[in-house]
Each structure stands twice: as structure tokens, then as C-alpha cells.
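Morning run. Coffee first, then this:
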Amino acid sequence: MSERTLKVGLVQQSVADNDKATNWNKSAARIAELAKHGAELILLQELHSTLYFCQNEDTDAFDLAEPIPGPATDFFGKIAEQHNIVLVTSLFEKRGSGLYHNTAVVFDRSREIAGKYRKMHIPDDPGFYEKFYFTPGDMGFEPIQTSVGKLGVLVCWDQWYPEAARLMAMAGAEILFYPTAIGWDMTDSEDERKRQHDAWHTIQRAHAVANSVPVIVANRTGFETSPTEGDPGIQFWGQSFIAGPQGEILAQASSDKEETLLVDLDMTRTEQVKRIWPYFRDRRIDAYDDLVKRWRD
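And here it is:
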């Protein structure tokens, strides 16, 4: 088996306001830093152009959305071409009048869009009112073909669903990506914060294990004030990470700093793991019909 390695990076950053140009340029500087050190593939965090506007329901926030293609894709396409990299971005997409999505866009060493993925699972929780803003995706769980392989791009809340990771892997995804914006409610106890973070960490490592593929997670960091009076806001917990095909942590960022991570992924080992742990061979697909039901009564 011929050896194959891939140098992958991610950007973890904070967002101070809705000045897109400032936020894009901050991301661009981090991308340039990673590319200088040989990164071939780079992931940005969820909705990196602006503040996380889903802390409340505000129709004015729809002004932050833009079409695809549009200004953001023009900017990041140029960056991908300039540095000769595969780049995974995350945007608030205006698909049409009154129709919006949370969308990941992939560029493959050029300004042209290689593919996109619209977030399928949409949360609606205190401080995360995404159902108000985003229509669930309608593109399914299809990997995006690039010069470095098939990329299984999912978004944030998708990371809690083993079905999404499995379907991407079944379609040939060689790596799973999760651009993310998750953090703590400031009223949570320290014990509850630890439980939440540990669950988040564990479920995504489990996707790596169950599908024998690396997992790359880029989360935002920093505190963002809520627009709602009396609401405590969100402390995004950072701790972006890259895991190998057995869930092993290859690199992890801190909880409160803007950072980049850079790892050499041994893709040959990924194939070897699949041969030793043949989960796909032993799946009992003849017995899984009930998985497409909402509940088993």
C-alpha cells in the first residue's frame, strides 16, 4: 500500500462585531499562516463572517445573509486560489426571498465553488434559535469531491447525529468536517459545563471510530453578549480538535484563545484501520429498517 499523507489545518477565532471585512481579513491572515507551513486543506468555523446572531429572533439579522455566489465566496475563492489550498468555509446563505440556509462552501485550489452543503439538523434551544433563521438543508449527505479526496462536510448540530456521519462515510467521505459554534450558557455550573463539553468531544470522536475516518472540528471562541436584556450571553468554548480514524486526538486548541491547528494526517493508516476493524462489512442492514422511523412504539 503506497503511503499518503495530507497536511490539514483549522482556524479557531473570536468574533467581535458584524464587520464582515474585518472578520474575513482575520481569517485570511490565519489561512495564510497555515498555508505558509504547508497546509493543503483548511477548515473555518461556523458562520465566521459575523457574530452568532441566533441568540435571539430578529428579522433585521436576515440582512447579514448573502447569495452564493456572492461577496463572501468571491473573497474566500480568491484566498483558496492564492494559496493553492482546499478551503472549507461557512456562510449564512440567502437562497431566495424569505429562504435562508446555514451553508458550508468548499473551494478546491481555485475561485470556483467545488461544492456546498446545507445544514440538515437545525436546533431551537435557548440562545440557539436557529429554526427562526435557517431552512433545513435539501442536498442530502453527499461528500464533496476535491483534489485531496472526498470531504464529508457537516455543520455544528449535525455533529450529534451518528446517522449523518454514517451516510457521509457510506458515500465515500474520507474525512468528516464540523464547522461549529457551540458554547456555554453563563448560568451553567462548572460541573454542567464539563458534562456538556465532554459529551460534545465524545460524540465526534465516536464518529471517527464508528466510520474509521479522521474528524476535524473548528469551533469559535470568545464571549458574545446576547442582544436580549437579561440574557447572560454565550461563552464559546473553543477546544477545536483534529482526531484520527480511531478517535485519537492528534491536536486540540485551548478554550479561550484564537489559534490554528496543523496536522499531518496519515491517510494510509485510515485504510489500514478499516481493514482491521471492518464495521461496514458486518453491518446488519437487513435489520435496520426501523431507523427511518421517528420512534419505535
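Helices lie at 20-36, 71-83, 162-170, 190-211, 267-276, 279-282. Good start to the day.
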